[in-house]
């Protein structure tokens, strides 16, 4: 039996697994051979675009269908590509320099931030950031914006709001993504956390998984609660995602810190852990802190 | 101009970015309209298999080509799918129960491992593991196997070997993946690390990025050095990947620990950090430790 016949003889039984992100399926079946009936697993992965195809991209499109949700400069389509395989297309026109920058990969650097570097470079950078950049966060916490999206609100200095992240569709539980934003304005990042914040941190740890379990049916041991460092905005917040959402943005070590580890470090290791620890950062060259570091590194 | 004409009028200029894993490309171009020439960005993503297509999978294959690297039970093909879009196919036949288990997703649980849990459940589990399961690791360290794959070897109790991980193709630098395996047999996991291991850890930190930079041209600030916990085998080893390899296996917080953080914790925070800290683990139900935990949790 030649190998291509082996493939043609595959009889599908059931799907073992599939990954829509990578367009891969794992199928269980069997192949009958002279020697008997063999169990078989077939793994199929769609291939990437070849670079040479990209120049004449639109010439290879067939049967283009426009989606109704087109919005301003964003236009969505489905189309076949040469044959019958579908692809999803987004066209942004007119696109600005900001759009181009957003979709162009920027060089990133791994930086170990010592307490001295934090005090000399990062803290002044945070304090100089115009507060209007986080006005939208204050609006959520104060209840003057997005109040209908908040699913849980607790009051006081140890209070917080919980709301779905914009990236979550609200339906796919494997991609569950919520955000905890604290009421207090005095914690800009994990660097500011100390023993005095244990009631706040513990309140998030106790109440959020219980609430998520009740509201969305995702059990507490399927959740990952973590903080980014550097965060994308300097008002303390905690990301809540499903464990299976393994490619949630910046969930990798070197960019994130687990809430449980933060609590343990402060409670059992040292109350001033986040003031004395050297913390990793992965910083893009477009980030304001990278520019500040480049300017000031001679000063250190 | 109807929207489909807008897409047909896209003129390709250059590729901004592409992601072979998700089969997505970001193209820069322009569209000429009555109002002038607009910059445009086109984002195309191949769609996933639809579940209804999977039952009749092999009937939709066209122009199957066999790859030469077929090996024993593994057979590799390229094929078109209905039309002209390529896909890569792996057929495993005869497949065993172990293969089926490997490709079937298992439920996973987030567990906080206190020092007490480590001592009562995990340490005995590690000590009862048959050493023959890591004989292959000893063979590499002793030089009796895979010696031609080792790219760096240092001697003594603070020594280690460095070799490419089997998952790396050795060519794509964005997916660079190397493994450091230490000579000493006394460190089973990060739980065993203490002040006495700082020379070993520091030697890895100093020598590996410098070597990788010289040999592969990847600069030290583009690398991520980390340890898994729980590891997949209990002989201390360090993973070395490119920063851009953001979906390297289990590189997420809750499953990995950055070597720099390990060194900082032991050197500047507490020498016995890894004996007194509560460490997160994400454990699949098929893992021996999960079974041990289920059996013994009443004993705690």
From TrEMBL, chains A, B:
Keyword list, A-Z: Hydrolase, Nucleus
Enzyme class: hydrolase
Binding annotation for substrate: 136, 146, 165, 167, 228-239
An annotated Gene Ontology molecular function: RNA 7-methylguanosine cap binding
Cellular compartment(s): Nucleus
InterPro entries given in the database record: DcpS/DCS2 (IPR008594), HIT-like_sf (IPR036265), Scavenger_mRNA_decap_enz_N (IPR011145)
Protein name: m7GpppX diphosphatase
PANTHER family recorded: HISTIDINE TRIAD HIT PROTEIN MEMBER (PTHR12978), M7GPPPX DIPHOSPHATASE (PTHR12978:SF0)
A cellular component term, taken from the record's GO annotations: nucleus
Residues the record marks as active site: 237
GO biological process: deadenylation-dependent decapping of nuclear-transcribed mRNA
Main location: nucleus
Top-rank taxon, per record: Eukaryota
Family: Belongs to the HIT family.
Catalytic reaction equation(s): a 5'-end (N(7)-methyl 5'-triphosphoguanosine)-ribonucleoside in mRNA + H2O = N(7)-methyl-GMP + a 5'-end diphospho-ribonucleoside in mRNA + 2 H(+)
Pfam families found in the cross-reference section: DcpS (PF05652), DcpS_C (PF11969)
E.C. number: 3.6.1.59
């Amino acid at each position: 039996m030649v190998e291509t016949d082996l493939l043609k003889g595959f009889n599908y039984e059931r799907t073992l697994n599939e990954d829509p992100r990578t367009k891969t399926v794992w199928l269980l079946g069997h192949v009958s051979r002279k020697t008997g009936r063999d169990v078989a697993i077939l793994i199929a992965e769609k291939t990437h675009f070849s670079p040479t195809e990209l120049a004449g991209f639109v010439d290879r499109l067939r049967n283009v269908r426009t989606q109704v949700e087109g919005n301003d400069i964003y236009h969505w389509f489905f189309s076949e590509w040469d044959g019958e395989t579908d692809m999803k297309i987004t066209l942004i026109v007119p696109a600005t320099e900001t759009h181009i920058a957003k979709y162009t990969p920027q060089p990133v650097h791994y930086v170990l931030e010592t307490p001295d570097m934090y005090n000399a470079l990062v803290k002044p950078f945070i304090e100089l950031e115009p507060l209007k950049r986080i006005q939208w966060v204050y609006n959520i916490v104060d209840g003057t914006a997005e109040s209908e999206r908040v699913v849980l609100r607790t009051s006081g200095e140890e209070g917080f709001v919980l709301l779905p992240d914009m990236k979550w569709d609200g339906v796919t539980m494997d991609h569950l993504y919520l955000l905890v934003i604290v009421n207090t304005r005095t914690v800009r990042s994990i660097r500011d956390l100390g023993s005095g914040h244990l009631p706040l941190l513990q309140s998030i740890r106790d109440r959020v998984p219980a609430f998520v379990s009740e509201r969305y049916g995702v059990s507490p041991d399927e959740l990952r609660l973590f903080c980014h460092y550097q965060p994308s905005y300097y008002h303390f917040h905690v990301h809540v995602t499903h464990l299976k959402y393994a490619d949630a943005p910046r969930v990798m070590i070197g960019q994130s810190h687990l809430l449980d580890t933060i609590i343990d470090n402060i409670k059992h290791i040292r109350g001033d852990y986040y003031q004395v620890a050297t913390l990793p950062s992965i910083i893009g060259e477009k980030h304001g802190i990278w520019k500040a570091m480049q300017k000031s590194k001679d000063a250190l």
